[in-house]
Specification:
Blueprint: H1 3-13, H2 25-55, H3 60-68, H4 88-98, H5 104-114, H6 116-129, E1 146-150, H7 166-175, E2 179-183, H8 202-208, E3 211-214, E4 234-235, H9 242-247, E5 277-281, H10 286-297, E6 301-306, E7 324-328, H11 334-341, E8 346-349, H12 357-362, H13 364-388, E9 404-408, H14 436-455, E10 459-464, E11 467-468, E12 476-478, E13 484-486, H15 495-499, H16 502-511, E14 517-520, E15 526-527, E16 530-531, H17 532-544, E17 551-555, E18 561-562, H18 563-575, E19 583-586, H19 601-607, H20 615-631
Parallel strand pairs: 1-2, 1-3, 3-4, 5-6, 5-8, 6-7, 8-9, 9-10, 10-17, 11-16, 14-19
Antiparallel strand pairs: 12-13, 15-18
Helix pairs in contact: 2-4, 2-5, 2-6, 4-5, 6-7, 10-17, 11-13, 13-14, 16-18, 16-20, 18-20
The structure holds nicotinamide-adenine-dinucleotide (NAD).
Length: 635
């Protein structure tokens, strides 16, 4: 390369990379070939050991976890997995050809990685034949069987199907007599995109298949095996699915420490896997507290953004968790959110100005204007990150990995509904809300639909109904004698955090001796008091479930309670039967919706989600805590 050519090339690349090293063209070409071939060999080592151990009837992952446990030298040990795509295979092959077979390690890696497909199909065949009557030896092992393949892209969470080994798996299954069904979140059902036919929904695939192979560990499959309940054979060479992962953890001897989850190696063409990352705006809020905890407990990294305007800086149990990164910032700052969203797999739009019913009246304009700016900035950021996904870096990896936005709407979008319980589909039929808060929440849903229509950004809309709790699931502490007991004192969370809802408000009035108890209106308002921990689980399920894609869900308890019933329950829990329940009615607010009753069947049928915490259990948690705060003079 002559100097002018070098200068021109340098001019282009210096805009992309802060550091550059000058090599001759031959050196540079070898640098690239060597890097890709080395990584390909790395994956081949894992794949070779995997096949070797499985063929010997030994669970590779249990052995691997034991090997890498607290052994830093083994930190780079790759996990097995299909290793394909446009770069690694091609460059290894190029070196083999260039050296005229003088690269035996490369040749061996090609054989190992490419024939993993056959090996995996054989494992499934063995698993299936162990559970059925012997057939004629001439019969193909999969004759009359349906095999489901999850994931057709060449690696996780991308829409790139080039040289994907999923298609080789498919071919081998067919040669063995199977009918093959496929699913990939990036292929439309019934399509033949990426060379795939028989693309069906995940639900159909799980229902119709006799055996299943997880070919590509897209995040949306993480809990897919829970739907199967262990009823069908599944091959998971990635150690990715929740149940197989749990079953494959070797036991440590008593008195020794927990098995580490293994090295964090980053998402790769081969086995490595990085924790999926979720940005939660309004993470320091009431629902945010439960949500962050739920996500961390289920293996996510969380990037929280909050400006602390609502409660100030609230201490949380998970503040020191290395997987939690909290940014003090404004969710209206689109540039901040864009930078953060680029590092995320999911965005959950949770931040909003929200308060008790008096807010709706006192701050009618601010709620609309502020929340509109917050949601616009959040969507701008998500769209920005999602668009970057299609741009590739020099390794062919997408520059971003955002898959979906989850939007927290509200039951208030059904302010004018006339059908109870109100199903999700009613959103298209009932009149828009009268309150500016409810109207803006409806606008959030339109943002989601608009971003999908114009930019293809996938979404899920979650409609919570009257969330109740302390703002954080109370920790369970193991005490001497191995009894699990609730902490006596909640040292985290602020009082404001717990008090901004009707349930704690009534509790404190009764605890302070108000008699008769003052209720807003006639107490006939019907609500569904949903525990924050249940709601957080529902949001996580919405984030993960393939069936939640571009869908909307009422996430709530199915149990109706009138405000009067709630008040009486609180009264009886505090005063017992001794003191007769007495109450008076105060003038209600204008936007005090009488019926807020969700139809919860869709979440149950489609997602398998049901809220499980009763109002009585919620009160048993809240009453002692509020009592303690009153004693301490905090309220
Ligand atoms: N709590 C419920 O019962 C309920 C019901 C339906 C819907 N929702 C929705 O759920 C979401 C969370 O509600 P919540 O009850 O946790 O509210 P919350 O007020 O407890 O939490 C909201 C958080 O957002 C933060 N925030 C507000 N404006 C911000 C900004 N400009 N930049 C950064 N952070 C900001 C606040 O500081 C607060 O920590 C909201 O979108 C709300 O509309 C809540």
């Amino acid at each position: 390369m002559d100097e002018p050519a070098f200068e021109r090339t340098y001019g282009v690349f210096r805009t992309m990379s802060p550091t550059m090293i000058r090599l001759s063209p031959m050196e540079a070409e070898f640098a690239k070939l060597m890097t890709n071939a080395w990584r390909y060999l790395d994956f081949a080592i894992a794949n070779q050991f995997y096949t070797l151990l499985q063929d010997s009837g030994v669970d590779f992952f249990r052995v691997m976890k034991a090997v890498i446990h607290e052994y830093p030298r083994a930190a780079g040990f790759k996990k097995p997995g299909f290793c394909a795509g446009p770069c690694l295979v091609k460059d290894t092959r190029m070196l083999v050809t260039h050296t005229q077979q003088g690269f035996p390690m490369g040749s061996a890696a090609l054989t190992v990685n490419e024939t993993l497909a056959e090996s995996v199909v054989n494992s499934l065949s063995a698993l299936m034949s162990s559970s059925r009557k012997p057939t004629s030896t001439r019969e193909h092992p999969f004759t009359g069987k349906v095999i489901g393949l999850l994931g057709m892209a060449f690696k996780a969470n991308v829409d790139d199907f080039r040289s994907s080994l999923s298609y080789r798996v498919k071919k081998v299954c067919r040669m063995k007599g199977a009918v093959v069904l496929c699913h990939d979140p990036f292929l439309r059902e019934g399509s033949n995109g990426g060379g795939s036919t028989n693309c069906v929904s995940v639900e159909t695939l799980l229902e119709k298949s006799d055996g299943i192979i997880l070919c590509t560990p897209h995040d949306c499959y993480r809990n897919v095996d829970a739907l199967l309940n262990g009823n069908k054979p599944v091959i998971d060479i990635w150690d990715f699915l929740a149940s197989s992962k749990a079953a494959r953890v070797p036991e440590l001897l008593p008195g020794t420490r927990q098995v580490s989850a293994g090295p964090k190696t980053g998402t790769d063409a081969g086995g490595g896997e990085e924790k999926p990352t979720v940005m939660v705006t309004g993470s320091a809020g009431f629902i945010g507290g439960y949500l962050v905890q739920e996500l961390l407990q289920h293996g996510y990294r969380v990037i929280g953004v909050d400006n602390f305007t609502k409660y100030g800086k609230v201490e949380r149990e998970y503040d020191t968790n290395p997987d939690y990164e909290l940014h003090q910032g404004d969710a209206k700052d689109a540039e901040l959110l864009k930078k953060l969203a680029e590092r995320c797999d999911y965005v959950i739009a949770c931040a909003a100005m929200i308060g008790g019913i008096s807010y709706f009246h006192a701050l009618a304009y601010d709620l609309l204007a502020e929340n509109e700016r917050i949601i616009a900035a959040t969507f701008d950021a998500a769209i920005h990150a999602f668009k970057k996904k299609t741009r590739k870096d020099q390794d062919g990896n997408p520059q971003s990995r955002l898959k979906k936005i989850v939007v927290l709407s509200s039951s208030m979008v059904f302010e004018q509904a006339a059908i109870f319980p109100t199903p999700e589909a009613e959103i298209e039929k009932c009149a828009p809300p009268l309150s500016t808060y409810g109207f803006q929440k409806l606008a959030c849903e339109y943002y989601a639909k608009g971003a999908w229509e114009q930019y293809g950004l996938p979404y899920t809309i979650v409609r919570p109904f009257n969330c109740v709790g302390l703002g954080e699931r109370r920790a369970l502490r193991r005490q001497e004698g191995e009894h699990l007991v609730k902490e006596e004192e909640v040292s985290f969370g602020s009082i404001k955090l717990a008090m901004s809802h009707v349930v704690p408000d009534l509790i404190q009035k009764v605890l302070k001796g108000q008699d008769p108890l003052h209720l807003l209106g006639d107490g006939k308002q019907v609500r569904h008091y949903t525990y924050g921990g249940d709601l957080a689980r529902g949001i996580r399920v919405c984030l993960e479930s393939p069936a939640a894609l571009n869908n909307d869900f009422n996430i709530s308890t199915a149990v109706s309670t009138t405000v009067l019933e709630l008040a009486e329950l609180v009264w009886k829990k505090i005063h017992g039967e001794a003191k007769p329940f007495r109450w008076v009615s105060d003038e209600p607010f204008k936007y005090d919706v009488q019926m807020r009753v969700p139809d919860c069947r869709k979440a149950k049928d489609v997602l398998g989600f049901e809220a499980s915490t009763s109002l009585s259990e919620i009160l048993d948690e809240l009453i002692p805590w509020i009592g303690l705060q009153i004693q301490l003079g905090n309220m």
